[in-house]
């Protein structure tokens, strides 16, 4: 067995999965707009007179209604029956080349639309990244907080969210002892939103995301080679969390995806 070759092979398989998710029709490359909405009805279509102007749509495509119970429906132009947005979290409706969903950031609701025929989905280019470094795949000590820590996390759009923090990871990297809060994700796949000093020149300036792996009761694997750009690095129509102050790293962690030029 060759540990270095095995590590590189596993990383390449992970990268291919990463690209498949990014270029999926429900990924981040084909978002074409995000429009804040409240209870009421909004017209959609290609003409500028519509509340939501959609390129590659009919002049009058239809109308979206957000109901007082925060459910949503779409009435196609010339149609007689409302089509209902369905699903947990961000309920969506797929119609023609578009996927429409109701997203939430803090207390703000928005209509977000994807174009399934967007040319951006055809990209096969690798994302720029640092050279692989097996030493930056680290097993951290995982501490469960009881009771959980309640904090406010800002977002790139200035729409703060409240978060309940149940886990903190403690580890040594690049010669420093560090701790980071898992602000999102699941117990099986905790998400760490962090920013380190590479954000000054090499990586996305706002934050990177890192998902914990191989979680046990008291440990989690943090592979910084798999630190990724957040959705906001690819589209202005995503609302991404910013790192809590505990996850601001005063060192350069030269691993993972670099800034998209």
Please describe the topology of this protein.
Elements: H1 3-22, E1 31-37, E2 40-45, E3 52-53, E4 62-66, E5 72-76, E6 83-84, E7 92-95, E8 98-105, E9 108-115, E10 137-153, E11 161-173, E12 176-182, E13 184-185, E14 190-194, E15 208-211, E16 219-223
Parallel strand pairs: 2-3
Antiparallel strand pairs: 1-9, 2-4, 4-5, 5-6, 7-8, 8-9, 10-11, 10-16, 11-12, 13-14, 14-15
Q: Calculate the terminal CA-CA distance, rounded to whole Å.
A: 38 Å
Structural class: mainly beta
Order of helices and strands: HEEEEEEEEEEEEEEEE
What percent of residues are in strands? 35-45%
Helix content: under 10%
Runs in which pLDDT lies below 50 for 5 or more consecutive residues are none
Q: Which assembly state applies to the chains in this document?
A: single chain
Tally the structural domains.
Answer: 2
Cα-atom radius of gyration: 21 Å
What value does the average pLDDT take? 93
Give the overall form. Answer: globular
Q: Major sheet, described briefly?
A: 5 strands, mixed
* Number of alpha- plus pi-helical segments: 1
Query: For the largest beta sheet, what order do the strands appear in spatially?
Result: 3-2-4-5-6
Strand count:
16
Characterise this structure.
By secondary structure, the protein is mainly beta. The protein has 2 domains: 87 residues, Tumour Suppressor Smad4 (Sandwich); 122 residues, no CATH class. A 5-stranded mixed beta sheet has the order 3-2-4-5-6, with no helix packed on it. Strands 1-9-8-7 form a 4-stranded antiparallel beta sheet, with no helix packed on it. Strand 11 and strand 12 form a beta hairpin. The longest helix has 20 residues. The protein starts with a helix and ends in a 38-residue tail after the last strand. The model has no long low-confidence stretch (mean pLDDT 93).
């Amino acid at each position: 067995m060759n540990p270095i070759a095995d590590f590189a092979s596993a990383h390449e398989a992970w990268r291919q999965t990463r690209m498949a998710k990014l270029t999926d029709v429900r990924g981040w490359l084909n978002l074409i707009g995000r429009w804040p909405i409240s209870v009421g009805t909004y017209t959609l279509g290609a003409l500028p007179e519509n509340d939501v102007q959609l390129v590659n749509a009919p002049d009058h495509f239809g109308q979206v209604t957000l109901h007082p119970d925060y459910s949503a429906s779409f009435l196609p132009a010339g149609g007689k029956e409302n089509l209902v947005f369905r699903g947990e979290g961000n309920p969506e409706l797929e119609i023609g080349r578009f996927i429409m969903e109701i997203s939430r950031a803090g207390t703000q609701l928005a209509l977000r639309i994807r174009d399934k025929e967007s040319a951006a989905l055809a990209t096969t280019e690798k994302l720029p990244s640092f050279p692989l470094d097996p030493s930056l795949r680290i097993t951290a000590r995982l501490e469960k907080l009881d009771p959980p820590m309640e904090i406010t996390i800002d977002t790139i759009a200035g729409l703060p969210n409240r978060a309940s923090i149940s886990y903190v990871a403690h580890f040594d990297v690049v010669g420093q002892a560090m701790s980071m809060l898992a602000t999102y994700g699941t117990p099986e796949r905790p998400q760490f939103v962090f920013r380190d000093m590479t954000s000054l020149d090499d990586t996305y300036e706002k934050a990177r995301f890192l998902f914990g792996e191989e979680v046990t009761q008291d440990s989690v694997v943090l592979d910084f080679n798999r630190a990724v750009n957040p959705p906001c690095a690819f589209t202005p129509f995503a609302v991404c969390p910013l790192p809590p102050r505990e996850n601001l790293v005063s060192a350069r962690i030269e691993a993972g995806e670099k800034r998209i030029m």
